[in-house]
Design a protein that fits this description.
Largest sheet: 4 strands, antiparallel
Bound molecules: zinc ion
Number of strands: 4
Helix content: 25-40%
Order of helices and strands: HEEEEHH
Shape: globular
Strand order of the largest sheet: 1-2-3-4
Number of domains: 1
Radius of gyration: 12 Å
Length: about 80
């Protein structure tokens, strides 16, 4: 399974939650299959970081970061109430 597919599944299963949003950052909690990961989006640099091994190495975008990106995109599409 590719990370795109994994990320889509995380979204579909409701495993991505926005935990906290401040002026500078958005914190997400992503429930993986056996671990929970924290993804942080820095609004100033527009960078995502994740505490999993791929996110920490920063060599690859992990499925948690991708899922958080999709979450934000979906949120933008929703009408504001
Ligand atoms: Zn990750």
């Amino acid at each position: 399974m590719g990370i795109e597919e994994k990320a889509e599944n995380l979204i579909k299963e409701g495993r991505v939650k926005k935990e906290l949003e401040t002026g500078k950052r958005i914190h997400f909690l992503v429930e993986g299959t056996d671990e929970r990961h924290s993804v942080i989006f820095d609004k100033e640099t527009e960078n995502f970081t994740c505490d999993c091994k791929f996110g920490t190495l920063r060599e690859k975008t992990c499925s948690h970061i991708l899922a958080s990106k999709i979450y934000l995109l979906n949120e933008e599409k929703k009408p504001k109430n």
